[in-house]
């Protein structure tokens, strides 16, 4: 069994690239194969763009890292989708911040 050296949140695009690289080195296990197939099917953004979008969204100081990753994974198209992703914290954002989130996301869609 492998030892966990460190842990951090990553986007689906980053996970897809990690699994793609691992599949070249070793045969993926059952769960990894399922995750890989799911990510190939549903990831809508490249790893490079995901990392860039994460950095841009981190500029909005009210967003947590988990919220930023959720936004990048789901790529909301309108305020209603942003509201669903952010849930209770949606009310803490100003109208300008909500518009800024959509503006930043739309540059990568």
Secondary structure elements and pairings:
Elements: H1 12-25, H2 30-42, H3 47-57, H4 65-74, H5 79-86, H6 95-106
Helix pairs in contact: 1-2, 1-3, 3-4
Q: What would you say this structure looks like, in words?
A:
It is a single chain. This protein is mainly alpha-helical. It folds into 2 domains: 12-42, no CATH class; 47-106, DNA polymerase, domain 1 (Orthogonal Bundle). It has 6 helices and no strands. The protein has helices spanning 12-25, 30-42, 47-57, 65-74, 79-86, 95-106. Helix 1 crosses helix 2 (30-42), helix 1 packs antiparallel against helix 3 and helix 3 crosses helix 4. The longest helix has 14 residues, at 12-25. The mean pLDDT is 95.
Number of domains: 2
Average pLDDT number: 95
Give me the number of helical elements.
6
- Name the shape in a single word: elongated
Stretches where pLDDT falls below 50 for ≥5 residues?
none
CATH class of the largest domain: Mainly Alpha
Strand content: under 5%
What's this, in brief?
With 109 residues, the protein is mostly helical.
Note the main attributes of this structure.
single chain; 109 residues; mainly alpha; DNA polymerase, domain 1; 0% strand
């Amino acid at each position: 069994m492998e030892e966990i050296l460190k842990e951090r949140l990553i986007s689906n695009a980053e996970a897809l690239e990690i699994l793609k690289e691992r599949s070249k080195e070793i045969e993926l296990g059952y769960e990894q194969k399922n995750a890989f197939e799911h990510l190939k099917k549903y990831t809508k953004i490249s790893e490079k763009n995901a990392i860039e979008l994460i950095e841009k969204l981190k500029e909005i100081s009210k967003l947590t890292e988990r919220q930023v990753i959720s936004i990048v994974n789901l790529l909301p198209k309108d305020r209603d989708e942003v509201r669903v992703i952010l849930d209770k914290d949606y009310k803490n954002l100003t109208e300008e911040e909500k518009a800024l989130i959509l503006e930043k996301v739309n540059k990568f869609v």
